[in-house]
Amino acid sequence: QNSGLQRMTFFFLIEDIITKMQDDKTGGVPIRTVKSFLSKIPSVVTGTDVVQWLMKNLSIEDPVEAIHLGSLIAAQGYIFPISDHVLTMKDDGTFYRFQAPYFWPSNCWEPENTDYAIYLCKRTMQNKARLELADYEAENLARLQRAFARKWEFIFMQAEAQVKIDRKKDKTERKILDSQERAFWDVHRPVPGCVNTTEMDIRKCRRLKNPQKVKKSVYGVTEESQSQSPVHVLSQPIRKTTKEDIRKQITFLNAQIDRHCLKMSKVAESLIAYTEQYMEYDPLITPAEPSNPWISDDVALWDIEMSKEPSQQRVKRWGFSFDEILKDQVGRDQFLRFLESEFSSENLRFWLAVQDLKKQPLQDVAKRVEEIWQEFLAPGAPSAINLDSHSYEITSQNVKDGGRYTFEDAQEHIYKLMKSDSYARFLRSNAYQDLLLAKKKPESEQGRRTSLEKFTRSVMHKSTTRITGLIMEIMGA
Amino acid sequence: MCDQTFLVNVFGSCDKCFKQRALRPVFKKSQQLSYCSTCAEIMATEGLRENETLASLKSEAESLKGKLEEERAKLHDVELHQVAERVEALGQFVMKTRRTLKGHGNKVLCMDWCKDKRRIVSSSQDGKVIVWDSFTTNKEHAVTMPCTWVMACAYAPSGCAIACGGLDNKCSVYPLTFDKNENMAAKKKSVAMHTNYLSACSFTNSDMQILTASGDGTCALWDVESGQLLQSFHGHGADVLCLDLAPSETGNTFVSGGCDKKAMVWDMRSGQCVQAFETHESDINSVRYYPSGDAFASGSDDATCRLYDLRADREVAIYSKESIIFGASSVDFSLSGRLLFAGYNDYTINVWDVLKGSRVSILFGHENRVSTLRVSPDGTAFCSGSWDHTLRVWA
């Protein structure tokens, strides 16, 4: 129920990968000590080995993907380049080391600046080239010195104590631990310009594990002024499930059990059919004609769509479903004109009026309801629509309340009526067929439409056989 | 001879329903009454209800869930990708960044397209909301919200206003003015009020209504002009992170996804949940309808995207890979529904073949999490927003 758990699950997933990677019994990457000049580099792996391992064990075909994943795992803090503060992965002989479990992100570290100050401070105390501060670290240290001016003595003492502890360790072990410690800080105080992977989505923050927990120190430092983990003012007590909740759930489940559902095979057929029908209209699959504006930087496609003259392809789409013609402004106009020629436009006008009603601000709803009633349904209405008596009953009852959904039932009836009757006739009409075949425009308007005509001709040329087939089908129906 | 007991039937008027029936004695709070058998039955079951424990109710719910799963499984005769084997495979995909929008000073959290197919609105962590003509990459409007983490923004259907909100727990509408002298913030209208962060908002098919989703676990429909709550939607057990309106011309439904791992389909008129799906293993960050409205896709922190069909009332596909271990933050379909674009927390965008279930392409480019992704209204491109402060338009 909580995203803290999910965050941990995510870390455990990476830790599982990292653990497997280090397991030489099950084909992990070879971890070696490499000789370099006068010294040895203990416990390292190469980038290539890591990338190869990821490709093999996570079924990744493209090395680019494996490199990217490797970089992300590094950025999270589980593996790091020994000679760079920037946490990425390269597919070459660069050396990497695995992070110590003590420093793993799953321990929910939120190290304070005091810890960071101690760390930087102790680095300056040791005379080792490999511990020299990078420019950005020196800047950070200077800033921290200013910020913690009053308690710098305390920090200095802690740093000294850490140096003492470190000195007691074996030389090789020191090398490894120092690098791991540095990698830890590269995660929590990343190089400027690098992604800070400890940043969290604020929506997921409040349900973290132990949000109230006092932040623990990397160096075991406890002090009075240690702050609490910031609890964003988002925390809300999680409502307990009540008997009423479960009763509602039981009612819901019973309703679902009664629901009539389709078989998967039917659903699959339907999804495939829809997608196949629209694939030629999908500009990211079938290149748009004349061109995709984003690719060619030419807005011709959009200009054509804005014009009142619809392309043949667009007209064809009106025939796919009733909804298609209703959602296209130009299609609606054509359909309306056709109905007007038959003196049967009241149905569509009613449907449009009800759509418009639902878009009104609350205060205008009652007025519009009355207007629609008067125009289309009241006895003696000028644009009387034909409803069955049952629907008429329901609607006249609803009108008394005058809400946004007053005409839902009536609208549904009219929709079904238009779909089975007028829409079907429109598709067979000369008006529609002419548009479909992109009949030549009158001479006077030819000059202005040259590019459009060229376009429709090119589309027609490609789709002639399909159009013929469609006509045959409609004629036969 | 044997003992026989006879039940004496008294006929008369029932003390509860007053109908003339055979009566039997019942005791209610130590008072003797005469009920007909029907009323006596009802009283008995009511008494049972009082004694129902949370545990017994829960077990009843569990057994119903089991029964429901059984019924659905009977209809699960084939997998989508199996039927889709006969569908022609898609060719090689070459999709590139065609525009990069730079201007936000912090993580981009949300974006939406204008119906004109080129303008977009985007919002970020630092409170900035910017309107761009993404074709020319020019910024046309900018406003700074009084709160940080503006997680939701939407373009009005008319193109004349935008809505946004986040940690302020509100959804505010800003009319877009082209008067250079006018301060956009001056005409701001507060519409929605939640008791926790606003995670998503969307205009319905009109500038006059807004649908919102919130960290308070509810969704709500508001009248923009008056700010009045028209309908609220309760049912999620945790933060609601996303919503999408059904594409139908006449439909009144929408789908929402939340931190309770559930995707729920709602009736806007009644406020009731009509269908629910719970197969994800973690927070659902994004939901989007398939273009026909018969199905929807979801993206989750469990690193998978899934397809749910409303007619089958079931999950019908999972889009996942062993190598994808970061959560999917946002999803959207191409115009035909054949492609599913998904933005992930590993900075990439994966393009999935919806029917076959395979990944068609992986797009690199962003330098931090992809937080938001939407296909343009005419499907010619899609736009992604990222924690790397930029937005990219791909085609």
UniProtKB/TrEMBL annotation, chain A:
Gene Ontology terms, MF aspect: GTPase activator activity
SMART domains: DEP, G_gamma, GGL, RGS
InterPro entries: DEP_dom, G-protein_gamma-like_dom, GGL_sf, RGS, RGS6/7/9/11, RGS6/7/9/11_DHEX_sf, RGS6_RGS, RGS_DHEX
Localization, UniProt: Cell membrane; Cytoplasm, Cytosol; Membrane
Key words of the record: Cell membrane, Cytoplasm, Membrane, Signal transduction inhibitor
Gene Ontology cellular-component terms listed: cytosol; neuron projection; plasma membrane
Keyword Nucleus part of the UniProt annotation: no
Domain RGS: 321-436
Membrane topology: Peripheral membrane protein
Gene Ontology terms describing biological process: G protein-coupled receptor signaling pathway; intracellular signal transduction; negative regulation of signal transduction; regulation of G protein-coupled receptor signaling pathway
PANTHER family: LP21163P, REGULATOR OF G-PROTEIN SIGNALING 6
Protein name: Regulator of G protein signaling 6
Species name: Aotus nancymaae (Ma's night monkey)
Taxonomic lineage from the root: Eukaryota, Metazoa, Chordata, Craniata, Vertebrata
From TrEMBL, chain B:
One of the record's GO cellular component terms: nucleus
Species of provenance: Aotus nancymaae (Ma's night monkey)
The entry's keywords: Coiled coil, Repeat, Transducer, WD repeat
Family designation: Belongs to the WD repeat G protein beta family.
Any GO molecular function: protein-folding chaperone binding
Quaternary structure note: Component of a complex composed of RGS9 (isoform RGS9-1), GNB5 and RGS9BP; within this complex, the presence of GNB5 stabilizes both itself and RGS9 and increases RGS9 GTPase-activating protein (GAP) activity. Interacts with RGS7, forming the RGS7-GNB5 complex; within this complex, the presence of GNB5 increases RGS7 GTPase-activating protein (GAP) activity. Interacts with GPR158; promotes the GTPase activator activity of the RGS7-GNB5 complex in absence of glycine, in contrast GTPase activator activity of the RGS7-GNB5 complex is inhibited in presence of glycine. Interacts with RGS6.
One protein family per Pfam: WD40_Gbeta
GO BP term, example: dark adaptation
Role: Enhances GTPase-activating protein (GAP) activity of regulator of G protein signaling (RGS) proteins, such as RGS7 and RGS9, hence involved in the termination of the signaling initiated by the G protein coupled receptors (GPCRs) by accelerating the GTP hydrolysis on the G-alpha subunits, thereby promoting their inactivation. Increases RGS7 GTPase-activating protein (GAP) activity, thereby regulating mood and cognition. Increases RGS9 GTPase-activating protein (GAP) activity, hence contributes to the deactivation of G protein signaling initiated by D(2) dopamine receptors.
SMART domains: WD40
Coiled coil feature spans: 51-81
Residue ranges of WD repeats: 101-133, 191-232, 233-276, 277-318, 330-362, 363-395
Keyword Repeat (UniProt): yes
Keyword Coiled coil: yes
Name of this protein: Guanine nucleotide-binding protein subunit beta-5
